[in-house]
Structure formats: structure tokens, C-alpha cells
Specification:
Blueprint (H helix, E strand, L loop, with lengths): L5 E6 L5 H13 L3 E6 L3 H4 L2 H8 L10 H7 L1 H7 L2 E7 L1 H8 L6 H8 L4 E5 L3 H5 L1 H12 L3 E2 L3 E4 L5 E5 L3 H11 L9 E6 L4 E2 L5 E2 L6 H12 L3 E6 L11 E4 L3 H11 L5 E4 L6 E3 L18 E3 L3 H8 L4 E8 L3 H11 L4 E6 L11 E2 L1 E5 L4 E3 L3 E2 H20 L1
Parallel strand pairs: 1-2, 1-3, 3-4, 4-5, 8-11, 8-13, 11-12, 13-16, 16-17
Antiparallel strand pairs: 6-7, 9-10, 14-15, 17-19, 18-21, 19-20
The protein binds ligand PMT.
Ligand PMT binds next to helix 11, helix 13 and strand 16.
């Protein structure tokens, strides 16, 4: 998604400048070529050498550096960039950009570019709420500048509130979104992810190995591509993705309730969650004590959320998953027909690199018309985009 893209990373002077180092690492890891521009005050917080070493490109700091101006001057950088990301962006820099002041390398280069510009502000909460700042921000937004809005939290100045630089992963997501075509604009996609937990008592539960990676990858990709996304997730160790509405649930019954509540708002539903098929008949209020006798658990069936959705889906595209260890395609076809699905993503969880708790998957996409698309081992991120490509095709097919 960022492979081969040229990103200019502008760093201004704030304590959060150290987080730009992590952002740089994420961008280069995703295959982007990054050129850093640091303001004079940024260099008070982090050294150019850090950015130079990690980007493997010279860091640009001076407007009037004759050698670098000839080789790769500010206009050349402005022209070559696919995207500008400014993180952290101070109120000062934002004020300059909003008022057409170009008095250093960063502000000059940003003014000279035609590339999209993503601004990640970081400042004291009172500065952030200052009406002059707000006017500047609104002005830039009107002109098409993108913002990775700051988070709330404890600020370096001792105040608590809005103004904290977004996490590098969130800025990375916003950068990827800025470079992605919006072919899912107008769609409202409900994605389920992760396992469910069915409690036995206050300390124990029945669950499975789902990490949430597959479902989160789909949710992130859909958001990047312009969809409004609701992610209903069982308990995972993953951070809630930036920009989406994330609803955390524990049990299958909670997941069912969360999905049904949001059903009317969605045009596409993708059920990547690994829902426990059974739950204990009774949950003990106290911790179940061990004894010398064997313990028998009585399990009852959980609601089949996908099956219920199939009955009421209407015009929506409904995508189910199938995690199987045998007869993958046959089982997927049975699910497709019995649950009235438009597509099943069948993963053979017996294969190395497929299924639970890994970054990759090996899937077969099974369609209503009998087609089966066999996919090779790939990153869950790439499979997510492929699933969404097929969803778009199915929607087009439905429209005739
Ligand atoms: O989370 P990861 O670690 O990245 O792993 C990804 C995954 C293996 C969990 C994912 O790729 C996957 O296969 N998810 C579905 C797992 C599963 O529960 O398969 P199933 O064959 O038991 O269920 C079939 C479908 O019915 C699924 O879409 C499931 O969400 C749904 N279901 C299942 C049971 C139930 N009570 N209600 C449901 O809606």
C-alpha cells in the first residue's frame, strides 16, 4: 500500500518529536521512501542523525543549503512527494501554513507541494482550544489539508486534555488512507473479529485462539478505502484501529446483541470472528473449587449469529468465514447455502501460515455461483483488500 511511495516527513519542535522516529520506522517498514525535514526547534528534541539512519536518506534542515538545494532542493522534494506528513505539528507551523507564511524549509516545501498533506498536531490543551488555532485548523481543512486529530491524555506540560500527538500507528493508518483510492465511499461495513469468551466462573472461560488480526485487517482496509466501519470485536491484544467505531464485547450473546443493534446501519457485513459455538449452561458466581472428583461441564448452544443474519440480510452483502480442518470447500458450500451468504472465506486452519493467530492466511473464496477462488499464502492485510475487492464486484453484480 505504501510500497514505492515517496513521503516527506516534517518534524517540528515538540516533546512528541521522538514519536516521529517510530512513525518513520513504520513508514519505511511498509516500503515507503521517507525524506525527513526537521525544523530548527525539532533538532532541540531529537537529532537529525536518528532520522537519517532510519530513513537512509539525508535529513533536510536548512532552506539555504547550496549543495542540497542543487541536488534535492525544496522544490524537488515538494515535487517528488506522494504525501507530506507533519508529525508532530506545532500550533506555530499550523499557523504559518494557514496564513501563507513560508519562512523555513518545512513551511516553504509544504506550500510548494501539490501532494496531499497530513497534519498531526501536538500542543498544550489550551493552545489546542484557542480560537485562533481552531480558525487556522478550519482554514487548512477547507483547503483540503488532512488531520490526524490529537488524542486526549496527560500532556508533557502537566495539563490533561486534548492535544496529545496521535500514536504513530494511528498516524501511519491515516497516511495509508491518504494514499488509498476511496472505492468503498458510501458503504457502511460491519466487521466482527476476535474470539468470544464464555465464562465458567469469575476466573475461567472457554475461548479459542483467534487473535483478531484477520478481522482487524479487514476493518482497517475498509476504512482506508473510504467506508464507514463498525468493528465489533471480542477480547484481543490489538489496539482499536484509528478512525473506526470499535465496539468491544466478550461473549457470543454480547456479540449477537452488538451486531443486531447495528445491522440497520450497514450495507456489508463481514463475520471474521471466531464465535464460540457453546457456552456453559450456568456461570458460577463464585470460583469453582477444585476437588478430587471429575468435573463435568454442561454446555448449551450459542446463537448462530451468521445464520440469523442470513435470514434478514435483505440487499446487504453477507460474508462468512469458515475455519476447517477437513473438507474445506464442501463445508464452506454448505454454510453458504444454509446461511444464505454471498461469499465464504474458507481457511484451512490445518495448514502452516493459515488461520488463527498468525499474520498470514491461505484462503479459498467460495461464491454462490459455484466459483472457488484459490488463494496462495498471503499477509492478512493483502487478503483483507482482496476480500473487499470481491465485495465490490458482488455489489456491482447485484446492481446488474
Ligand atoms: O483472528 P485471527 O487470529 O486472525 O484468525 C482468523 C480466523 C481464523 C479466526 C478467521 O480467519 C476465521 O476463520 N474466522 C471464523 C472462525 C470460525 O468461527 O469459523 P466457523 O466455521 O466456526 O464459523 C463460521 C462462520 O459463522 C464465521 O463467520 C463465524 O463468525 C460465524 N459464527 C459462528 C458461530 C456462531 N455461533 N455464530 C457465528 O456467527
Amino acid at each position: 500500500m505504501l510500497k514505492g511511495k515517496v513521503i516527506v516527513l516534517g518534524v517540528t519542535g515538540g516533546i512528541a518529536a521522538y514519536k516521529a522516529v517510530e512513525l518513520l520506522r513504520l513508514l519505511t517498514k511498509a516500503g515507503a521512501t521517507v525524506h525527513a525535514i526537521m525544523t530548527r526547534s525539532a533538532m532541540e528534541f531529537v537529532t537529525p542523525l536518528t532520522f537519517q539512519t532510519l530513513s537512509m536518506n539525508p535529513v533536510h534542515t536548512e532552506l539555504f543549503n547550496l549543495i542540497s538545494e542543487r541536488e534535492i532542493g525544496h522544490i524537488a522534494l515538494a515535487d517528488r512527494a506522494d504525501l507530506f506528513v507533519i508529525a508532530p505539528a506545532t500550533a506555530n507551523l499550523i499557523g504559518k501554513l494557514a496564513n501563507g507564511i513560508a519562512d523555513d524549509l518545512l513551511s516553504t516545501t509544504v506550500m510548494a507541494t501539490k501532494a496531499p498533506v497530513l497534519i498531526a498536531p501536538a500542543m498544550n490543551v489550551n493552545m489546542y482550544q484557542n480560537p485562533i488555532y481552531k480558525e487556522n485548523e478550519a482554514r487548512l481543512k477547507d483547503h483540503g489539508y488532512l488531520f490526524a486529530e490529537p488524542a486526549r491524555g496527560m500532556l508533557a506540560c502537566g495539563w490533561e486534555g486534548e492535544g496529545k500527538l496521535q500514536e504513530p500507528q494511528a498516524i501511519f493508518e491515516a497516511a495509508a488512507a491518504a494514499l488509498t483510492g476511496k472505492d468503498l465511499a458510501g458503504e457502511r461495513i460491519l466487521v466482527t473479529a476476535g474470539p468470544t469468551r464464555e465464562e465458567l466462573d469469575p476466573v475461567r472461560y472457554i475461548s479459542n485462539h483467534s487473535s483478531g488480526k484477520m478481522g482487524y485487517a479487514i476493518a482497517r482496509a475498509a476504512w482506508r478505502r473510504g467506508a464507514e466501519v463498525i468493528l465489533v470485536t471480542g477480547p484481543t491484544c490489538l489496539d482499536p484501529p484509528f478512525g473506526l467505531d470499535t465496539v468491544a464485547v466478550e461473549s457470543a450473546e454480547e456479540m449477537r446483541a452488538a451486531v443486531m443493534e447495528r445491522l440497520s446501519d450497514s450495507s456489508v457485513i463481514i463475520k471474521a470472528a471466531a464465535v464460540a459455538d457453546y457456552r456453559p449452561r450456568q456461570r458460577s458466581d463464585g470460583k469453582i473449587k477444585k476437588s478430587d472428583q471429575p468435573l463435568t461441564l454442561e454446555l448449551v448452544k450459542n446463537p448462530d449469529i451468521l445464520g440469523e443474519l442470513g435470514k434478514i440480510k435483505g440487499e446487504r452483502i453477507l460474508v462468512g468465514f469458515a475455519a476447517e480442518t477437513e473438507a474445506l470447500v464442501e463445508n464452506a458450500r454448505t454454510k453458504l447455502t444454509e446461511k444464505n451468504l454471498d461469499m465464504v472465506v474458507a481457511n484451512d486452519i490445518g495448514q502452516v501460515g493459515a488461520g488463527f493467530n498468525v499474520d498470514t492466511n491461505i484462503a479459498k473464496l467460495v461464491f454462490r455461483d459455484g466459483r472457488v477462488e484459490e488463494l496462495q499464502l498471503m499477509q492478512k492485510e493483502d487478503l483483507a483488500d482482496l476480500i473487499l475487492d470481491r465485495v465490490i464486484e458482488l455489489k456491482k453484480g447485484n446492481r446488474g
